Structures are given as structure tokens and as C-alpha cells.
Amino acid sequence: MTSTANGSCLCNGVTFEITGNLGIFQYCHCSRCRKFTGSAFASNIIVAREHFRWLSGENLVKRFVPEDTKHFATAFCTQCGSALPWLAKSEKTVIIPAGTLDSDPGIRPQQNVFCDSEPDWYIEPDSLPRYDQLPPKKNKTRSDK
User: Fold this and answer.
1) Do residues 41 and 27 lie in contact, with contact meaning Cβ atoms separated by under 8 Å?
2) Taking Cα atoms as reference points, which of 105, 103, 61 lies closest to residue 83?
3) What single-letter DSSP state applies at residue 101?
4) What is the pLDDT along the chain (145 residues), one digit of tens a residue?
5) What is the distance of C-alpha 25 from the center of its chain?
6) What span, in angstroms and rounded, lies between the C-alpha atoms of 14 and 112?
7) How far apart are CA 78 and CA 65, in angstroms?
8) Residue 32 is inside which H or E element, if any?
9) Which of 19, 39, 96, 116 could serve as a FRET partner for 137 with CA atoms 20 to 30 Å apart?
10) DSSP 8-class letter at 49
């Protein structure tokens, strides 16, 4: 799909743009993505390198490249610590953490990968109660204390 979307880090010190064929949008459950995001899975959009560009703050971006990986690397803002897009080891694709986008990329998640790495505590989000905001506080009874 051809589209344009902008993104940034938490402090807005780093901004970027993705344009063109936005490629694949997937949820990755591998242990590295879980460690990097601090979550059950990463929401990643994979784009060709030529469809990505830094708009500002590239000097604030730090890249970490584990030696023992085939494709995986990470990037983050040195000012606020936010996850940021990272260049894969092949240097052909850029992985965009979807949560860093400030606008709708126009594509939706297409697949889950590395599901065999899901943690034991993982529960499908659709099976949990939903609230538009924080849930109401529960009144504690004596037996709850």
C-alpha cells in the first residue's frame, strides 16, 4: 500500500516520515522484541530503506546491534528513551515501531510472527475487559485488605 505517515519520540526531539509502499505490518512475539518494547509483542511496520527518512533529531538516535542476531537491531532516543525506527542488519529495510507513529499509516496488522516465543503469562487482548479510560476504582471491603 502506498501511503505517508509521520512519527516521533516521546519528547518530540526526533521526528521521521515513511512514504511509499509501507510493506508489512506485523506483531512480533520474539524474545528480543519483547525485551525491547517491555511488552508481550512488538507492533512493527517493515519498509524499504528508501521509504524512510529522518525529519529532525537524527543526532539523538542511538542504535544497538546485537552481535548474535541475523536481522535484529534496535534504536532509541538518547533524550527520552523512546523506541525508534531501526535499520535491519541487512540495511535494506527499516523497522518502524508502530506506536511511534503520530498519524495513521493506512495499513493494519497482517500477521503474528514468532508466536512460539509468547510468554507463559500472555493472554489474548480480546479476551480481557475493555475500558475507554482507567477502570473505576473498586471499593475495598474488609476481606480485600
Assistant:
1) yes
2) 61
3) B
4) 567 899 999 999 999 999 987 789 999 998 888 988 889 999 999 999 999 999 999 999 999 887 887 778 889 999 999 999 999 888 899 999 999 999 999 999 999 999 999 999 999 888 999 999 998 888 766 655 5
5) 10
6) 28
7) 15
8) helix 31-37
9) 39
10) G
Return d(Cα 36, Cα 75) in angstroms, integer.
Answer: 9
Closest C-alpha to 124, from 40, 55, 2: 40
User: Residue 86's closest CA among 72, 98, 102, 106?
Assistant: 72
Cα–Cα distance between 77 and 95 in angstroms, integer?
15
Contacts of 12 (CB under 8 A, 6+ apart): none
CA–CA gap between residue 68 and residue 42 (Å, rounded): 20
Q: Which residues of 1-131 form beta strands (DSSP E)?
A: 2-8, 15-21, 24-28, 42-48, 52-56, 61-64, 74-77, 86-87, 93-97, 111-113
